[in-house]
């Protein structure tokens, strides 16, 4: 996977070449350039210098606020890779990816949020970050994944907005069950209330295909063989090619797919949420974005009685990977939801 540092290095090298730095000089051209004398430099007033310095500082600050940075979050004994963007004093937003994605799934959304004043962190979660990839299946139980997610939130502050897709959304719903006071607003993508959705997996005939695949993924070796590079290319037909290939390269690293599948295996194919949790109500302002053709649509209507606070359903045309299929619609819905429920204006306790 090409690192952000590599990209920056290549860009700087290109700029250096463009301005003649590090290459052969053109003596004839240089001899024709007027020399900059001490008088020319000294004519700039101190005030002008201060203004220029302030302007440069402002420019750097603005650039930093809208440039994705690669960071490391140390939490729960592991080091997690993450992307960060946006002004440090902006409204905080944590973004959790799903399976078998990484933080790269938020590539198009992050700049949109940053440009609107939001400070965002998008981690590669447990098993996806190379330095947070324990081998034992029990390391991927709900308690561990929830603890990681709240630790990511600690990087943003006591309260933060949460945006999550697929397995990230499963954990997001469980975070609302565990400690909802820390979530200023929630955007769940492709997964309705997790316990209700898990019930549908085992009771809704329309989910039979998914249940069959779930049993395949739960089987060691067989699950890993199922998730070939070509399989990922097939499911991500709408993902930008460079982003898709970078994600595939990441997920075909030794141990990466096994770690990701351990989320399923540790939950016993979502059975654990049915066995360990009673249905819980949600009072946090919540937006559910659910593709119009995604599996499990019957469970969407079933969650309404549990949504006791602000709740809105958006159903753009598309399937499970709606972030890739409808990036503009998804970004618009998320931005509207976040701006409607800013921490400073929220009555949520």
What features would you highlight for this structure?
single chain, 349 residues, alpha/beta, Rossmann fold, eight-stranded mixed beta sheet, 17 helices, 8 strands, 14% strand, disordered N terminus, disordered C terminus
Please characterize this protein's 3D structure.
- This protein has 349 residues and is α/β, with parallel strands linked by helices.
- The chain has a single domain (63-345), classed as Rossmann fold (3-Layer(aba) Sandwich), CATH 3.40.50.
- It contains 17 helices and eight strands.
- The protein has helices at 4-18, 27-32, 38-42, 46-65, 109-115, 142-154, 167-178, 194-203, 208-218, 222-226, 229-235, 241-251, 256-266, 271-276, 297-302, 322-325, 327-340, and strands spanning 69-75, 78-85, 91-96, 118-123, 160-165, 183-189, 286-289, 311-314.
- The chain has an eight-stranded mixed β-sheet with strand order 1-2-4-3-5-6-7-8, with helices on both faces.
- Strand 5 (160-165), helix 7 and strand 6 form a beta-alpha-beta unit.
- The chain is globular, with a radius of gyration of 24 Å.
């Amino acid at each position: 996977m090409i690192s952000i540092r590599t990209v920056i290095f290549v860009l700087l090298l290109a700029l250096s070449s463009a301005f003649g730095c590090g290459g052969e000089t053109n003596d004839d051209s240089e001899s024709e350039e007027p020399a900059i004398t001490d008088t020319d430099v000294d004519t700039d007033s101190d005030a002008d210098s201060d203004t220029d310095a302030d302007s440069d500082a402002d420019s750097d600050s603005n650039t930093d606020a809208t440039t994705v940075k690669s960071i490391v979050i140390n939490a729960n004994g592991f080091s997690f890779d993450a992307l960060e963007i946006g002004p440090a004093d902006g409204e905080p937003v944590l973004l959790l990816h799903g399976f078998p994605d990484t933080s790269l799934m938020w590539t198009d959304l992050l700049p949109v949020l940053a440009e609107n004043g939001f400070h965002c962190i998008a981690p590669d979660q447990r098993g996806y970050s190379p330095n947070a990839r324990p081998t034992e299946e029990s390391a991927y139980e709900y308690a561990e994944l929830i603890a990681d997610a709240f630790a990511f939130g600690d990087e943003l502050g006591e309260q933060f907005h949460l945006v999550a897709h697929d397995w990230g959304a499963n954990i997001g719903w469980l975070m609302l069950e565990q400690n909802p006071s820390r979530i200023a607003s929630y955007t769940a993508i492709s997964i309705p209330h997790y316990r209700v959705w898990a019930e549908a997996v085992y009771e809704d005939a329309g989910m039979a295909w998914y249940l069959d695949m779930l049993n395949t993924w739960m089987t060691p070796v067989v699950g890993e063989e199922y998730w070939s590079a070509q399989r990922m290319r097939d499911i991500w037909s709408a993902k930008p090619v460079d982003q898709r290939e970078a994600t595939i390269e990441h997920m075909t690293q030794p141990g990466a797919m096994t770690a990701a599948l351990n989320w399923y295996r540790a939950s016993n194919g979502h059975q654990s949420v049915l066995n360990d949790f009673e249905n819980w109500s949600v009072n946090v302002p919540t937006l559910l974005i659910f593709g119009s053709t995604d599996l499990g649509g019957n469970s969407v209507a079933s969650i309404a009685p549990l949504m006791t606070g602000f709740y809105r359903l958006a159903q753009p045309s598309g399937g499970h990977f709606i972030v890739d299929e409808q990036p503009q619609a998804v970004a618009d819905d998320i931005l509207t939801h976040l701006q409607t429920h800013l921490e400073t204006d929220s009555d949520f306790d």
